Amino acid sequence: MTSAQVDDKGQGPHSAAADATTSAEGYQRALGARQIQMIAIGGAIGTGLFLGAGKAIAKAGPSLILAYAIAGLVIFFIMRALGELLMYRPVSGSFSEYAREFIGPFAGFVTGWTYWLFWVVTGITEVTAAAQYMTFWFAIPQWVSALIFTIILYGVNLISVKLFGELEFWFSMVKVTAIVGMILICAGILTLGFSDAGDTASVTHLWSDGGFFPHGIKGTLMTLQIVMFAFLAVELVGVTAGESKDPKTVLPKAINTVPWRIAVFYVGALIMILSVVPWTEFSPDVSPFVEAFEKMGLGVGAGIVNFVVLTAALSSCNSGMYSTGRMLRDLALNGQGPKFFTKLTRTGTPLVGTTFSAALMLVGVWINYQWPGDAFTYVVSFATISGMWAWIMILISQIRYRRLADRGVLPQSTFRAPGAPYTSVFALAFIAVVIVMMGIDKDARISLYCAPLWALILGVSYLVLKARNPGNKAFAGR
């Protein structure tokens, strides 16, 4: 049963008044093309790049560039698989909806709740990073900054989806402008030789300081969970489907920007900063972008970059609050979550779901208070495994959808994924390798310990809900 079907039965608050500006789920179609494009671009530029890259550089050296390039290709395969599904049926609860339709009700239940958990944990991650960035200017406890940011972003998300889209547009614009500007500055240093790093800057740093693989292939593989975490949130455009003014036109364009986004913002940016400053001079606990400007002798630039990365973290946290409320409402509309999560404000925002999620994000304040030095590492590993579950469900759903569409059972999508289903199978295999690497890495292993516990909680919850609602189609088998 889809969200649209539930609303048609009168359970959604706007079911009787759906029109050109209201989606079937009751949301307001207030996100325009420029906002969707910048949400798609900004989703790929967050804490994983600005803060997590420092740890990854220490583990892999220049070979991190290759890791981002290969992982970026896999992300493109995932996004095209998602695009094919979105053009078949664009809905706000996309991942759990497709898992529910093509795999089964339990898969939809697990996907919806796991993606919700992913964004709660990611929100904690991003507010943790934002609190760390504040220490660049002010000697205040991390937990204080984390608390203030959480409260402010919660308030923004309750006003309207249009304000959310506008805020994300400008957040993303700041990030894009800053990275492009940094690339141009680094290019100027390499060609003209200005700044403190001008005399030593050279592309030879990419292979002369211990080689391109200074810690071997294993060192590169061990960074995969950090690399994949950096790409988490690119799938956010799927959640915006129910609130986009023209999803059939806007979403394919946004998805097709993935290759050049990754080429410029990840591969291009890393090539530049690792050419200007040797990888051995970066600290794993400091943003490589901030540190690069400091080593160039551009102190003001370091402050500017720190502001930009603070913006990036707040942007991702803002997206997290947006996503969690929608995912909880989709589960509730399908009978797989408490009914009170269906409540919308007059402006079409999920009031109860967003409030509940923001309250849980305050756990990040406690984490920052208890373990200010290790908070980022703890939450990154758990966010990565829960976020990758959504990708796995997208890929499996696309494979099954394509099979049914090719047999004529379902209509063909207007945005077919090239090379599928082989590209989807390859992406699934790559994700499996990442999970194995997480099991080997002692810092990331904690997420694999938590995953079975979360699966047990979901399994028990599903059986209880199914027993209490024997006639509910949301729990019926395929």
TrEMBL record:
<dbReference type="InterPro" id="IPR004840">
    <property type="entry name" value="Amino_acid_permease_CS"/>
</dbReference>
<keyword id="KW-0472">Membrane</keyword>
<keyword id="KW-0029">Amino-acid transport</keyword>
<keyword id="KW-0812">Transmembrane</keyword>
<dbReference type="InterPro" id="IPR004841">
    <property type="entry name" value="AA-permease/SLC12A_dom"/>
</dbReference>
<feature type="transmembrane region" description="Helical">
    <location>
        <begin position="446"/>
        <end position="465"/>
    </location>
</feature>
<feature type="transmembrane region" description="Helical">
    <location>
        <begin position="375"/>
        <end position="399"/>
    </location>
</feature>
<feature type="compositionally biased region" description="Basic and acidic residues">
    <location>
        <begin position="1"/>
        <end position="11"/>
    </location>
</feature>
<feature type="transmembrane region" description="Helical">
    <location>
        <begin position="215"/>
        <end position="237"/>
    </location>
</feature>
<keyword id="KW-0813">Transport</keyword>
<feature type="transmembrane region" description="Helical">
    <location>
        <begin position="169"/>
        <end position="195"/>
    </location>
</feature>
<feature type="transmembrane region" description="Helical">
    <location>
        <begin position="102"/>
        <end position="124"/>
    </location>
</feature>
<dbReference type="Pfam" id="PF00324">
    <property type="entry name" value="AA_permease"/>
</dbReference>
<feature type="transmembrane region" description="Helical">
    <location>
        <begin position="258"/>
        <end position="277"/>
    </location>
</feature>
<comment type="similarity">
    <text>Belongs to the amino acid-polyamine-organocation (APC) superfamily. Amino acid transporter (AAT) (TC 2.A.3.1) family.</text>
</comment>
<feature type="transmembrane region" description="Helical">
    <location>
        <begin position="349"/>
        <end position="369"/>
    </location>
</feature>
<feature type="transmembrane region" description="Helical">
    <location>
        <begin position="64"/>
        <end position="82"/>
    </location>
</feature>
<feature type="transmembrane region" description="Helical">
    <location>
        <begin position="420"/>
        <end position="440"/>
    </location>
</feature>
<feature type="transmembrane region" description="Helical">
    <location>
        <begin position="38"/>
        <end position="58"/>
    </location>
</feature>
<keyword id="KW-1003">Cell membrane</keyword>
<feature type="domain" description="Amino acid permease/ SLC12A">
    <location>
        <begin position="36"/>
        <end position="466"/>
    </location>
</feature>
<feature type="transmembrane region" description="Helical">
    <location>
        <begin position="297"/>
        <end position="317"/>
    </location>
</feature>
<keyword id="KW-1133">Transmembrane helix</keyword>
<feature type="region of interest" description="Disordered">
    <location>
        <begin position="1"/>
        <end position="20"/>
    </location>
</feature>
<protein>
    <submittedName>
        <fullName>Amino acid permease</fullName>
    </submittedName>
</protein>
<feature type="transmembrane region" description="Helical">
    <location>
        <begin position="136"/>
        <end position="157"/>
    </location>
</feature>
